[in-house]
Structure formats: structure tokens, C-alpha cells
Amino acid sequence: MNRAAATPATQDDWYNRSNDEVHKLLGVSLAGLSSPEAASRLVRNGPNEISSGERISVLQIFISQFRSLIIWVLICAAVISALVGETVNVIAIMAVIILNAALGFYQEYSAEKSVAALKLMTAPQAKVRRDGHALTVPASEVVVGDILMLAAGDLVAADARLCDAATLQMIEATLTGESETVAKQAGALTAGNLSIGDQTNMVFMGTSVAKGTGRAIIIATGMATELGQIAGLIEKAGSDKGTPLQKKLDAFGRILVWAALGIVAVLFGLGLLRGTALYELALTAISLAVAAVPESLPAVVTVALSVGVMQMARRRVLVRKLAAVETLGSTTVICTDKTGTLTVGEMTVRRLYVAGQSYDVTGEGYGPAGAILLNGNAVSGSDHASLLALAAIHLGCNNAHLREEAGIWKTIGDPTEGALLTSAAKARLERKSFEQQYPKHFEIPFDSDRKRSTVVRRMPDGHLRALVNGAPGPLLEKCTLIDTGTGVQPISQQDRTDVLAEISAMANRALRVLGSAYRDLDGSKTGQSAEELEHDLVFVGLAGMYDPPRPEARQAIAQCRMAGLRIVMITGDHPDTATAIARDIGIASDRPALTGSELQDIPDKDLQERAAKTSVYARVTAAHKLRIVHALKANGDVVAMTGDGVNDAPAIKGADIGIAMGQSGTEVTKQAADLIITDDNFATIVDAIKQGRGIYDNIRKTLQYLLAGSTAELLLMAVCVVIGVPTPLLPIHLLWINLVTDGLPALCLATDAIDSDVMERPPRLPGEPITDRGFLSTMLFTGCLTAAVAFAVFLYMLDTTDTETARTYAFTVMVFSEVLRAFGARSESRPVWRISVLTNRNLLIVVGVSFGIQVLSQHNAVLGDLLKSSPVPFTDCLVLLALSTIPSIVLELGKLWRQRR
């Protein structure tokens, strides 16, 4: 693993140190390293590369499909069947095992590529100064102490401290998750413990230059960079997340196996004491094993999850790992990013202040739809001269462009400038004609020291006007005049007080405030520096903008509250903005946001307590996010983590269920995730949770249906062995019941329609067993009822006919009882007549086919030989059908009784 050169300073405090101190600590000047020294450092510290870590092989993925204990029980049953010559059993059981493994392998084959994707984000080449000259070297060969040359469009090759910067703005969304560009400067920062988003004198590997130029001295390479540390966190986060369902099925499988082995051993011992032939005992043992273990269970669970995958795909959710479908249904906490997930991800002007009046702005995003309202009435620039002047500055001091793609408006350039363009369009100001009337003369770009940008345009009468946008406080200090709506007047102290009050009011509403002003220039001798232009300005107005919540986000969060889910916002944005948005959409209470700098000082144990109460985290790093997820999991929560940036990837991989954004998400994040939301919409996540809960319900009722059938078979066989009568069902009968008569209806139950009230009840407790008391009591009662009816028919037929016919009648009763019971198994609480059969047409077809095959096997020689069935008169079939309804009728009456209680 590659590390940066050891230095007297830690990486955390480079931004606190002066340029001279940084140069001294790293032993380098602005002329750069010498070539021999660079080569020496490269040998000492290794190449500037992200470590890939150990990858999981295709063979390992395949072997992981056989971890389930039930699968191994089925393999053992197949081996024993092969030893005694039951070829049909062997073929049927192995087909189920292979199908289950193939489905699971297909879903997980593309996993485990997270860290490898990080390599795609590192710069292939870098421009550095060595031996006093600028040269281009492979990014893997840059070393600590190299002077990095930065220009617009460059991808940063390593973490570096800026030596100088000229209007330098960086795109750091890969690390912070925030789409706005970050203005950079070269001076030392005096504040301590700053998050990445606030380290304005640093640049980081994997980020890119939006505009401007700069020089920076590299302070960390490879795995010592912020990106490298994220790669390390991804490796440590782990990928084997044994889902709640997997854990519960494994636990249940162990109980089932030991119970089956115990019963088989006892009955086998009884047979030996009675002197039963060894072959007959082996056949009986196989029959009991087949009866005890529902062979179709692994395949049914896998198919249920696979169908869930297809259903989610239609709802804009792509599933990378099959088991993740069920995990969603167990989720108790959703940790979500703000920008682009809960919000639209587009800056929008919401309020304007000009000439002492406040205007509201409607519409979302960068599209022209919407209006400017004064006291609820739509107005335009032509009606209000001051409003037109403000719109002209927004349009004239602007380098962004708007473009419509497939009905969606997007901005090319700075998002803030794009929002101002949209606002100007709503004031009915058209850019093309504006550019013709007011051609650009020159401009002074924005820089972080001035906090302003200025564009000088030529007015129709020939004179020049400087249009200025910038931070409202510093801009106001440069103003000596104000546009009052009735003319330009000297700005009074009251005017300044009113403007400052409006700035505060907008900030309290989580709006990002921008001030606008202008100055008419005298003649052609005017200078072109900021000092010569940006003074004695005429203050025009303010624009308040923010990234608005998605319209559907509030409803989705309200639905989460109803479903007992807790939402936690984790963002790299400013704490005030994060808290305001969270309150607006219903996440946060009165508790303030917990910041990354505060998290640094909180021990893990204390964080667990804070995590149970905190709803908003701001200015956090990748490591912070992973700590938050671990704290929530330590509290017993099942955590879903959403995100789009590289800084989200470790937490996404460390969560119980990782969710990446499909549109804005980086490849690293997508590869670390279990699910990908293709529309980047929080409401889609909530819909996925609904699907996950419904799938779990379907698996639970399917499991109960299968186990009740296995219980009936086991009881029937065991009672007959104990009392010494012939076995009522042969292995082929049991296999047919488990794989076809039970298995096909079970597949229909596993893909049943989701109950409408699934999001009106709290999430399951993480430790709650899938086979609770109610589950087990219903299973046992159903098994006893079915076994009792079949046992009665078998004994009656033994007294009146031969053993083979008696077995056929008992076999028929078991088949009829099972397929009829499938209708009632669709709900644990609602009677069958309150569930429309048309919502599961597949079940109707399967039941009809099962009845048909069963009756046909009693009159067709080929089927009769295969299933070892004797002829049964049609009238007797009707009688057996009537008897087979007894278990279903009793169970449905039991539901009514429980409802009345």
C-alpha cells in the first residue's frame, strides 16, 4: 500500500500553514523538485496509485451460492436417494439445487468492483515543475513535493496545497456530494478542524478545475490522499452483509434439519427394534427426510426475489444483489443525501428584493415555466423598471447557458448563473436581443477574495456600464447609491438597514443570497481593474435562491413516518441550509445539525447515543458517514444508505443496504451499492421499501404454506410408522407433493400482489424470527388438520381395499388439500372471500392444472406408473375433494374468530 512521504506535519493541518512553512516542511521551492530527488521519492513512497485490494473470484461467487444449510440437506437427500436407486428423486432435487445456484450467481457476478472503479477517476497525466521547467508526467509518477500546475479542465492528480490561485474554481462533487463549484485561494486558513468542503486552499485527487489557474504543492499521493482513504474505507467496510432473511432462513434451516434428523433417528430405531428389513427402513428414512424438508423452498425464495427484481426495474430500481430486495423490507433507518435526492439538484431563484419590495418566483429548475409575483399577482420587467434593471444585471453578468434536452432544461456552466438566467427569462428578458442591444466590452471574473464578478457592457447610447453580482454584504459596502424605483438616490443608513434585514430574512429561509449593482462609467478612459470599477455602485436588489425539495419528497417522507421509518439526512452542505431543508420537508425537529467537525470529537459509544436522536448531519466526510452508519447499526437498526459521490461509497458498502443514484452517481458509488435508483428520486427509494416489505410478506406466507404441508406429510408418515401400519406415501408421492403440488402454488404465492396496507405498519424488529409464535401455531394446526383427514382416509381404505389403493386415496387427499389451501394462504388475517382471486390469476391456473394432473394420473397408465397411482372412480374423486376442503374451512373460520376477538 502506497503512502505519502513522512513529514513533520499531518495531512489534517496543511491548510492551517503558510506557503513558506509548507515549502520548508516539504523541502521544495516553486522551481520544483530536481529530477533525481523526484525519482528518489518515487522509489521511497511508491507510485501515486489507488490500491485495488483483493478481489472476489468467479469461483468464490459460485461457491457462496451453497452456503444455505437447507441446500446441503437437499444434497444429502439426493445422495441417499442415489444409493437406494431412487433416480427420479435425485434428478428432481438436483434440478432445484442447480436452478437456485444459477439464479443467485447471475445476480452477483458483477459485484465487487468498487475500488477498481476509483482508478478511472485519477488523472492519467499531470503537469508539474521540475528542475525549474514545466513538464507533463504520468500521474502515477508525481510525488510529495511536486509543484502541480492547474488549468481549466484538469483532473487533479494528488492532494495538494495551493501556492497561488487566479479565479480558481473547483468541482468537488466526487468528494463532497455538492454540485456547486468551490472558489479557491492560496492563503492559510486560521480555523481548525475544517471539512473538505471548507478547505479552500486545498485541492484533492479526483476533483477537477472548473475555471481559472493555480499552482499547488503536492502533500499526499496514492492511498494517503482523501480519495485513497475512501478506497481504504471501502475495503474495510466489508461486503458480506448476510441479510435479515438469509440469517433467519439459516437459523430456521438448522432447527428444521436437527428436528428432521431426530425424528428419522427415532423412527429408524423403532423399525430396527421391530425387525424391519434394512432396505425398507432406508426407504422409510428417505421418505421422512423428503417429507421434512420442503425441496422447493430455496428455489421459491430465489424466484420470489428475482420477480421482485423485475418489479423494481419497472419502478426505476436496478438490483445488483438479489438478497437486497428483502433487506429493504427490514429497513428501519434511511440515511440519505440532500442534493439531487431530496432536492431537485438545480438552483432556483425563489425570491427577489428590489426598490424596497419583495417578489416571489414560482417554477422549478432551469425551465422558463413560472412567474414573478408581487402580492400574488404576476408581473414582468416591462411593468416594473427596477425589476427589469435587476433582471438585466442577472442576464448581463452571466456566462452560463441554458439548453433543453428531451423536454428537460439543463444549465451549461455555473448552477447559480443558470438560476439567474431562468429568473431573467421569467421577467420576460430575452438573451439574444439583450446581447445585441448591450454588447459585452470586457469582464472581471469572480474570485474568492472580492466575492464578486463584473461584466462591462456598452449601452445603446454608447456609454459603458459595469454590471456587478456578488456576496450581498461586501457588495453593499461598495454602494453609495440605490435604485428606489422612482430614481437613483444616495443610499441612506435606513436603506442599508432594510437591505441587511432582507438578507437576514432570506438566509433564515435557507436561501443563498446574491446582490446586484451597477455603475455607469465615464468615457473611454475608465480602467479595467476591479479597484477602478467596483466602487460608488448603484445598489439594485437581491436574489434569494436554493435547491428546492422535490415535490414528491414531502409525501414520501410522510409515508416513511407512517411506516415507522426514520429518515436521516447526511450532507456536505452548510449546517443552516441542511437544517432548513430538513425542516421544510419534514425530517428534522428542533435539534440543530451535527457537523463533521463536532463528530471528530465524539467517541464511538457517545455517537451511538447521539445517532438515535440526530436527524441531520452536515459538512461530513466519507469517514464520518461510515461512522454514522456503524453507530446506527450498533443500535440495532437496519440501515439503508443512499448517495452519489465517491465520498458516499464507503458508507454505502458498510450499510445493510447500499443505494446509489443512477443519474448523478459516480461509477464507484454504483459498484459499491446493492441497488441503483435510476431517477435519483427519494420517493423511488420509499417505493422500493414498499416492494421489499411486500416480498418479505410473500416469502413468509409461502414458507408457512410449504412448512404446513411438510408438517402434514411428516405427521402422517410418523404416526403410521409408530403404530406399525404401512407407510401411506411413497418417496415419489412426497416429492411430487413438495415439488409440484406445493411448489407451483408456492411460486404463485411468492409473487402475489402486495397488500395495500404494507406501509401502514412499523418495520419488523431486526431480531424478530420469521417463524414467530403465530407462524408456528398456524403451521402446526394446519399440518395436524391435513394429516388427520389423510390419515382417516388411509385407515378407512386399508380396511376396505389393498395398500396400493389406500395410498392412492391418501395421496389424492394430500394433493387436493394442499392446492385448496393455497387460496387461504394468501393472507394470514383476511378470509379468502375478501381477497379477489383475479389479483393472482397464475394461482387459479396452477390449481386447475394440479387438479387435472392428479385426476389424470388415476386414469392414465404412463402417469399412473410414474406416480405409482391406482385408478380412482370420478365419484370418489368428488368425495375426496369434499373431504379435502375441511382443513381450509376450519382455517378460514379461525381467521374470522381472531378478527372478532
TrEMBL record:
Protein name (record): HAD family hydrolase
UniProt keyword Cytoplasm, yes or no: no
Primary residence: membrane
Species in which this protein is naturally found: Pararhizobium antarcticum
InterPro entries, alphabetized: ATPase_P-typ_cation-transptr_C, ATPase_P-typ_cation-transptr_N, ATPase_P-typ_cyto_dom_N, ATPase_P-typ_P_site, ATPase_P-typ_TM_dom_sf, ATPase_P-typ_transduc_dom_A_sf, ATPase_P-type_domA, Cation_transp_ATPase_P-type
Recorded GO CC terms: plasma membrane
Family: Belongs to the cation transport ATPase (P-type) (TC 3.A.3) family. Type IIA subfamily.
Membrane topology annotation: Multi-pass membrane protein
Limits of the Cation-transporting P-type ATPase N-terminal domain: 13-86
Subcellular location: Cell membrane
Keyword terms, alphabetized: ATP-binding, Cell membrane, Hydrolase, Membrane, Nucleotide-binding, Translocase, Transmembrane, Transmembrane helix
Matches recorded under Pfam families: Cation_ATPase, Cation_ATPase_C, Cation_ATPase_N, E1-E2_ATPase, Hydrolase_3
GO molecular function, one term: P-type ion transporter activity
TM segment ranges: 66-84, 90-106, 255-273, 285-310, 705-726, 775-797, 838-857, 877-897
